[in-house]
Design goal:
Elements (H helix, E strand, L loop, with lengths): L1 H14 L13 E8 L2 E8 L27 E5 L3 E3 L2 E3 L2 E8 L5 E6 L15 E7 L2 E15 L5 E18 L3 H11 L7 H10 L4 H14 L4 H14 L2 H18 L2 H18 L1
Antiparallel strand pairs: 1-2, 2-3, 3-6, 4-5, 4-10, 6-7, 7-8, 9-10
C-alpha cells in the first residue's frame, strides 16, 4: 500500500506544470551610443563579472582570441568613416575581437557581424588590426566596461576597462572637407549660413580672416545677437585687433544686458578687463 501511495504521489508531481522562472543575466547586455563628429558610434557587448577571480591570464587567457564580450563578439557600428589608431575604417557594422597579452593586446576589427564566437573568426575578414599596450589602474572594475571618454568634435577614446586593466582605442575623424562642402552648398541658397561659417573657419579651419568676414555678415543680419558679438571679439583678440575686440565686446555686453543674460554679461565683463590690460 505504501509503495502504491508513493507511486501515485510521483505521478502527481510529474503532472504539476513547471513554473517559468526568470533570473537576472550573469552578463547583462549593454549598448552605448556616442554622438561623434557628424554621426555616432555604438558598441554592444555583454558584461561578465570578475567575481573575485583573476581575469586576464586566467578567466581570459593570454595569447588567445577573445570575443571582448561573452558568448558572442562585441559589436561596433560607425555611422561615418573614421580612423582608429590612424587607420581608416568605413562606416558600417563590425565585430571587435582582441588577443590580450601581458605586454600588448592585438585589437582586431572584423567584418564577421554574424559570427557567434571565436570559432567563426576568419582573418580574411579583418578590416584593421593593431597593437595596444594595456594600462594598469588603481580603479578596479568588477564588470567588463566600455566607455567613451575625451569626446571632442574630431577625436574621442573608446576605453575597455575590466579588473585593473585599461585598454584605450583612440578614434579620430576629419570633418573639414565635409563641413566645407556643406557651407559652400548652403552659400548658394537664399539663407546663407554666415554664423556657422564663422564658427567653422575659426574653430576647425583656423582661418581667422574668413572667420571674421563671416561673423561680420552674421552680425549685420542679426544686429543684436550678443553671442555673435562676443565671438567676434574673441576672433579679433586672437588677430591682435585689441581696440576692435573691445568695441565688439562692449556691444555684446550692451545687448546682453538688454536681454538680461547674466552669463554673457559676466563673460564680457571678464573679457573687457583682459583686453584693457593688453591695451595698456
Amino acid at each position: 500500500m505504501k509503495k502504491i501511495l508513493l507511486f501515485y504521489m510521483a505521478l502527481l508531481i510529474l503532472k504539476i506544470p513547471q513554473a517559468q522562472v526568470r533570473l537576472p543575466s550573469p552578463a547583462p547586455t549593454q549598448t552605448i551610443k556616442q554622438e561623434f563628429g557628424l554621426g555616432n558610434i555604438e558598441i554592444t557587448y555583454n558584461r561578465p563579472a570578475a567575481k573575485e577571480k583573476r581575469v586576464f591570464g586566467d578567466l581570459v587567457p593570454y595569447g588567445k582570441l577573445w570575443n571582448t564580450s561573452i558568448n558572442s563578439p562585441a559589436k561596433l557600428f560607425f555611422s561615418e568613416p573614421l580612423e582608429i589608431f590612424g587607420k581608416k575604417i568605413d562606416s558600417g557594422r563590425y565585430v571587435l575581437y582582441t588577443i590580450p597579452g601581458e605586454e600588448n593586446w592585438d585589437i582586431i576589427i572584423n567584418k564577421g557581424i554574424n559570427n557567434k564566437g571565436t570559432e567563426d573568426y576568419k582573418e580574411s575578414q579583418d578590416v584593421i588590426r593593431f597593437k595596444v599596450a594595456p594600462i594598469h589602474t588603481k580603479d578596479k572594475k568588477e564588470l567588463l566596461t566600455f566607455q567613451f571618454t575625451e569626446v571632442k568634435p574630431t577625436s574621442c577614446a573608446l576605453q575597455l576597462h575590466w579588473e585593473r586593466k585599461l585598454v584605450i582605442l583612440p578614434i579620430t575623424t576629419n570633418l573639414n572637407e565635409k563641413i566645407r562642402t556643406q557651407i559652400e552648398t548652403a552659400m548658394r541658397t537664399n539663407k546663407k549660413p554666415y554664423w556657422e561659417a564663422a564658427q567653422f573657419y575659426y574653430e576647425y579651419d583656423k582661418n581667422l580672416s574668413k572667420a571674421l568676414e563671416n561673423v561680420n555678415k552674421a552680425t549685420d543680419t542679426y544686429p543684436k545677437a550678443y553671442w555673435m558679438y562676443l565671438y567676434k571679439a574673441k576672433i579679433q583678440e586672437e588677430m591682435g585687433f585689441t581696440k576692435e575686440a573691445m568695441e565688439s565686446s562692449r556691444l555684446s555686453l550692451e545687448f546682453a544686458k538688454q536681454a538680461k543674460n547674466i552669463d554673457y554679461i559676466k563673460m564680457n565683463e571678464k573679457l573687457l578687463k583682459e583686453l584693457k590690460k593688453k591695451e595698456n
